[in-house]
Amino acid sequence: MNIGGKEILDVMGDSSYKPMTFDELCHYFKISQKERKLFRRTLKFLYQDRKIIRGAEKRYRLPQKDDFVVGILKKHSKGFGFLIPDDTSIPDVYLSNSEVNNLMNKDRLKVMVGPNNSGKVVEILQRGTKNVVGTLFVRGKTVCVIPQGSESTFGGRECILIPFDKRFVQSHKQVVVCKIKKYQEEHRLAEGEIIKVLGKSGVQEVDFSSMAYKYDLPQEFSKGSLEEAAHLKQWNLKDEVTHRMDLKKLPFMTIDGETAKDFDDAVCVQKMKNGHYKLWVSIADVSFFVRKNSHIDQEAYERGTSVYFPGGVIPMLPEVLSNDLCSLRPEEEKMTFTCEMEFDPEGNRRAYTIYESVIISRHRMTYTDIQAILDKDSEISKKYSSLVSDVLIMNELKERLKEQKQKRGCLDFDLPESELILDVEGAIETIVKRSRLEAHMLIEEFMIAANEAVAEFMFFKKRPFIYRVHEEPSDVTLAEFNELAHNLGYPLPHQKVPHAKIYSELLKTLKGEPQEKLLNTALLRSMKLARYADKNLKHFGLASECYTHFTSPIRRYPDLMVHRLLKAELKQKSKNADTNDVEKEAFLARACEHCSKRERTAEEAEREFVALKKAQFMMDKVGQEFVGYVSGVTEFGVFVELEHYFIEGLVHMSSMQDDFYQFIEEHYMLKGRRTKKEYHLGQKVLVEVKNVNIDKRQIDFIFRE
Questions:
Q1: Which domain holds residue 693?
Q2: Judgement on whether residues 151 and 229 belong to the same structural domain of the protein
Q3: Number of domains in the chain
Q4: Four-point Cα dihedral 429, 431, 435, 439, nearest 10
Q5: Is 211 contained in some domain?
Q6: Is 327 within a domain?
Q7: How does pLDDT run across 132-157, given as a tens digit for each residue?
Q8: Which residues contact 73 (CB under 8 A, 6 or more apart)?
Q9: Does a structural domain hold residue 53?
Q10: I need a surface site. Which of 76, 220, 266, 337 has the fewest CB within 10 A?
Q11: CA distances, 422 to each of 235, 322, 427, 432, 602 (Å)
């Protein structure tokens, strides 16, 4: 009996149908032994066309709503990819090379999820890549662009064909921006046109622009925004000052890095007669200048955040605002929003009030100078003699706030970042580990305190608001981390409900241990990503019941929205719930999702730029030997962090020819079968730089005796 696809679908679509195995379907349709092969082929075609699925126990059924996941494609250089679901509670879905062969990074897809969380692409909902940054190659009259990070060769699957133009000959092997005109299909390469030749890779301006184009980061402000910014410069603020709390007599100071230009927070601490501390955190009042739906506001919303690269920045706001009108420069009268808090001698917050204010910052201090004062450096202390007592009181309060935060279980990850030291021309002189000073922590604690107070104020008012949330990690990822910690000698007690305090204690125990970096990194990866939400879902990492972002409106759009919502509440414009709240909540939900995505994009761009610069820095060091320490061990090789430079590379297993090495997972080490030689975390080793791949941002080492 020849059974067609329509008959199978009709049977499976009946409400009485229960999923059947292949054998059960053969019995149901009375398929003879000779016909089974043809029947199996019919089922296979239906499966390949995503019309049916084979679920648990290899039973066939029609797809249901839960079988489909929508998300963004993240392709790997090896050709396969992962769908990053819109729903953050759903794990990433693996997509094989064949599934993503004709797709591009950031494509928005509808995927059917099958066994082992692998997926089949059902529909391309939206193409995520319009412009591609890559290297232009010209051979004869054939021109193509190989995207950055691709392993494709000239004419390979991921190449983009470009119509020949003799002008391209002089741009051979240069970085270009290519607009896709036709997307890749099964038997046809993608086609495009060159919209900009950026220049030679390795030049600071070229690398800067390539990142901006690759991640769709706008580099220029619109004419409308610039005209508005110029007009703001002409505002007379005398009347506005009279309507605000006058804090000009308080000794405010800003504390930032040496190269900072946008000072959006100033602090002042005084010790009261009863032993309590009074802390003022005053934040630049960007919302006063940037009115809702103005050109500047619309553009700031689209950007979502400033993006910081070593040696440059793509700002969220025009320079007139970020570096002038809203920047709390010393000895200038500035419009601010202040959170004034009182803490008892143990660091418990006893009172707070929030209001519009006007201040004058008396000192522009750097983290380095504050740290020197805390370290009792005689020269710096003498230079800032009038500030020493204030700084010491600030440090006292910082210690009390830090103790309270640790008591509740805040996760203090110690994952140092790299700092690229540039010369006057923007070239890298060296790469070092960024210092995390007590001065940094001082500002961190004060900002956290202000963010919590503001969030708490709006939460108890039960008004529409934006929260910075960090949800509890999943049971699966925590179980995996707990197993790793146990294998490395750090067993953790079982928890029915995850609490940050156990992990906070672990991080303190790990200080200075060889396993510190690995477990810090693994714990961080087991966590969900912090994001913006219109509901208070708490902050697991900070062990905070209520948190927001209030302190950086110059560089983060959510902070600007927080200011507006807070002002409306303080001015009682939204004293009672009204019909506008429904519309406001809908907008906030969309805005939170948008700003979270823009934040992720900025972080990816910043990370890749640093990785690119590290690879470029190591290019002329191929063949040189360096001392390093084993920072990670996997089944495919050993990661080594150099002692002199804060750079990590991989010694691939294939290069370890002196023995056959086995990965002993429970101890995170490699052990030679014959020689018994071991490579384990924290071990001091000698390596040679074997290869550097600029496009893939990879550095390969080999071991030397």
A1: 622-704
A2: no
A3: 6
A4: 40
A5: no
A6: yes
A7: 999 999 999 999 999 988 878 888 88
A8: 81, 82, 83, 84, 95, 100, 103, 104, 105, 106, 107, 108, 109, 128
A9: yes
A10: 220
A11: 38, 23, 5, 11, 21
